[in-house]
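Human: My hope is that you can spare some time for a protein that puzzles me. I am handing you a single protein, as its sequence and its fold in C-alpha cell form. Could you go through the record with me and say what the backbone is doing? Take your time, and here it is.
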Amino acid sequence: MEQPENQADQLNIEIAEEVAEGTYANLAIITHSHAEFVIDFVNVMPGTPKSKVKSRIILTPQHAKRFMKAMVENVQKYETLNGPIKDLEEIHMPLNFGGPAGQA
C-alpha cells in the first residue's frame, strides 16, 4: 500500500516529558571550531557571582547556518504579530533586578 507523498516525507518526532518542560536561559555563549558550533545556554541569576551551563547544543556549521536562518525567520514572524523586540541595550535593566543581592 502506497502512502501519499506528503506522509512519506513526514518526520515523527517525540519529546520526553522532562524535555518538554524546557530549561530557562537568559544567556547564550557561542564558540566554534572549523568543524562545529557550540552553544552553551546559561541561566544567570542576579546577585550571584557564578552560573552553570544548563544546556549545550553542538551543531555542524551547515546546521548552525540553517538554525540562524530559522531564528531570523521566526523573529520576523514574531515581530509582525507583536511589534519590534527591543534590544537589551535599549532597555535599562539593573543587574540586581531591583531586589536585594543574594547571599548564601
